[in-house]
What we know:
Layout: E1 2-6, E2 13-18, H1 25-31, E3 36-42, H2 46-54, E4 61-67, H3 76-88, E5 96-101, H4 103-115, E6 121-126, H5 129-135, E7 140-145, E8 148-155, E9 160-164, H6 173-190, H7 192-206, H8 210-230, H9 245-254, H10 262-279, H11 285-297, H12 310-317, E10 323-324, E11 327-328, E12 330-335, E13 338-342, H13 347-356
Parallel strand pairs: 2-9, 3-4, 3-5, 5-6, 6-9
Antiparallel strand pairs: 1-2, 7-8, 10-11, 12-13
Amino acid sequence: MKTIKVDLGERSYPIYIGDSILSNKELFSQHITGKQILIVTNEKVAPLYLKNIEQNFVGSNYELCILPDGESHKTLDSFDRIITHLMEKKFNRTCTLIALGGGVIGDLTGFAASCYQRGVKFVQIPTTLLAQVDSSVGGKTAVNHPLGKNMIGAFYQPHVVFSDISVLDTLDDREFSAGLAEVIKYGLIRDEEFFCWLEKNIKSLIERNSQALEFAIERSCINKAEVVRMDEKETNYRAILNLGHTFGHAIETSLSYKKWLHGEAVGCGMLIASELSKKMGFLDQDQFNRIQSLLECVGLPKKIHKDVDYNQMFENMKVDKKSRDGILHLVLLKNIGEAFLTSDYSDEILKTTIKEFLC
């Protein structure tokens, strides 16, 4: 088992990465000491892993909140269900919320924990690759709004993260590929050596080789932990973690958070951002080809979904959280392994690039 520390002073916490962690009762008891526990999960994950988690709390006063599955349920209504459950069961400020699921459950549970009685403990148990390498780490919690993704939320760090690699065996290929988009992102934004490793080992990852997976998850979490340590509230540097997300979020919003997985939208968005970086004279053709090849290798979309039109997508981009004083800032690439945030781009080149990726 590997342990990574997210170093944030009094808000620091460990990430545990390994096999069969969900059955490690001793590890759970070290970090979850409160008498009132609410396990939040969804209808897809509960039949797979809920029993494993419940065994760690035999004799404890734990409750269950099982939500519908899917990004379309990452809403204030689902948030309200969690808060209502806590209030009906008279949970106090010493309670602990446990998020058992992917990014949607993690974001919902974390946001509820940040708000309930002005803040209670919560624990992340991510069950998708995307959640293990990205959304469970760093304290971003939120729900979606029909007009924009993750527009209602808070920065609120978990108490601990338990990433059990064995749960990835039950992911379908599409969900697994969506998670690899975020893994590739870390190589692109700040870790060229990791990107080169991915090029050489992508077949092992696609085949879900346990050693390759453990290394990729660990390296991704180390990268994210370092970025979060330097800029917890995303005042500047942390924005590089959003490579491809401005385009991806606009696609997701246009699709009403249906039809595409988050990682698929981000993968397509990273390709658009790479093409724009090339057009602006940063990436050369060989670098772009390497990025495109790796994204294609894991089965991520090469074109924007056919149900998204240009005007709709461009309007959605205007409500991106990186907009400042009405000016949209984009994360682009100077090189593989070197991302930067800028508003110094040509609107004409941006519009041309987006149109090239429309179906």
